[in-house]
Amino acid sequence: MVDMSGLEFTPPKYAQIVRTLQERIEDGTYPVGEKLPSETRLVREFGAGRSTVVRALQILSMQGWIEREHGRGSFVKGVPHQAVERSHAGASAFEAPENSKSDQIVCAGRMSVPATIAETIGLPENAPAIMRRRLVLVDDEPSELVTLWFPLDVAEGTDLGDPTPISIGAREHIQRVKQLRPSLVFERLSARLATDEENELLGLEKGTPVLGIVARIVDTSGEVLAVAEVVLPGDLHELEDSYSAV
Amino acid sequence: MVDMSGLEFTPPKYAQIVRTLQERIEDGTYPVGEKLPSETRLVREFGAGRSTVVRALQILSMQGWIEREHGRGSFVKGVPHQAVERSHAGASAFEAPENSKSDQIVCAGRMSVPATIAETIGLPENAPAIMRRRLVLVDDEPSELVTLWFPLDVAEGTDLGDPTPISIGAREHIQRVKQLRPSLVFERLSARLATDEENELLGLEKGTPVLGIVARIVDTSGEVLAVAEVVLPGDLHELEDSYSAV
DNA sequence: CTTAGCCACTTGTTTGGTCAAGTTGAGCGG
DNA sequence: CCGCTCAACTTGACCAAACAAGTGGCTAAG
């Protein structure tokens, strides 16, 4: 039972048609906006049954390469771009390792949750939780204030309440020690004025606008693993994002 | 030949099967990890041909609800969190139709671009462009200020410079009249204080923080179709976003 | 006990049909 | 010139049938 280098795995015909049409869209053989050959024509060209051609067209349609219009034809939409960059400030805060040079742990330990976080973390106001707050420095100047909140059962047995830097980041730490894996992040973002406390820590003047981000990080079962609060002084930060217009 | 209230649009059978199976996954009838009934079984249950059932399963598979294994069966993966909500404020501004009830066109016409927009739209400061600014009202109160900027060659021959509402939205309008299709959106977002002009239009007090969003909308060739500037008073708006933690 | 073969069951792919329904344009009559 | 009808072309939905190929369990031979 050799099989040898017989790695000549021939992809199914519908996949070949998909690939061919994608290439033609990419290289401009079928320009954007233009009408594709009709199903019947493609059937003849590729020597396939109509169902096979239709299947290929349906895949292209679902992937956003073409648009199909009943009674008119299929039209080129363009090359779909899925891979878009996003800011993901909340996830970054949870992910980022703590570095004693660029990060200054403001405080860490058991604390009662403030009203602004209570609902997000799913605990009553003033209930105890583990808080971990750090100031991110750029050129030795305070640039960003990150506060992570953990439910007690998540933080139990971890070093999240210790004021020593966690060099691998909170995500890795929780995942290693507690086998918990984050699955989804819900992020809320708004512009507001900095609180007195934030002004002091970040060295801002009264009345400075900040970008406030509150992210809820949950695992597959919907359990809250952590809440990240990120405060970005408006004059120092811009968030960037890009996405497909389709 | 009316048809009248015959608005009972019956979705195609494959779509009904998709919907039904999605519901069963959502409500736990088919738990995550479990094996779905075989194709033959589903064919019997839904009274459909195998091709139809397979089509439904293929859609579910492509959308990430299930995983299909050759020779073994189809298995529930879970509810996909791809269809995540994203604020996409910039795209919305470009897309949204103008309604004379909820929108008030502040001004529309040829204008020289300010410094804040110049670089984004790719024109020198004070170069002429078509501007279109509207105030979005909620409960007759100003809630949001949207300004669209168009390069002259994009706006030429369109109604984008007219102060009358464009009921189909700028995107549709450009697409119909000029055959230009937006492809990608680059968005920048920051917190800042409202300008005097914005304070006046939005009826804000001095020193109010706002969320400022500047979006560059480009077509497939990278040409800028429009720049959207959205100003959201901080106390009225929160942007929400969710994404996979992976 | 191990293994090879067989069989039932499963999904994967492809074909070739039918009927329905939207679109377009040519031709015709007013 | 306008509006109508109609035929041709298009995609949409569906089905029955066939064959390929992977999986898993049973059984009988080694």
UniProtKB/TrEMBL annotation, chains A, B:
SUPFAM superfamilies: Chorismate lyase-like, Winged helix' DNA-binding domain. InterPro entries: Bact_HTH_transcr_reg, Chorismate_lyase_/UTRA_dom_sf, Tscrpt_reg_HTH_GntR, UTRA, WH-like_DNA-bd_sf, WH_DNA-bd_sf. The keyword Transcription applies. Pfam families: GntR (PF00392), UTRA (PF07702). The keyword Oxidoreductase does not apply. Residues 11-79 form the HTH gntR-type domain. Keywords: DNA-binding, Transcription, Transcription regulation. GO terms for molecular function: DNA binding; DNA-binding transcription factor activity. Signal peptide: none annotated. One of its GO terms (biological process) is negative regulation of DNA-templated transcription. PANTHER family: GNTR-FAMILY TRANSCRIPTIONAL REGULATOR, MANNOSYL-D-GLYCERATE TRANSPORT/METABOLISM SYSTEM REPRESSOR MNGR-RELATED. This is GntR family transcriptional regulator. It comes from Thermobifida cellulosilytica TB100. The lineage of its organism: Bacteria, Bacillati, Actinomycetota, Actinomycetes, Streptosporangiales.
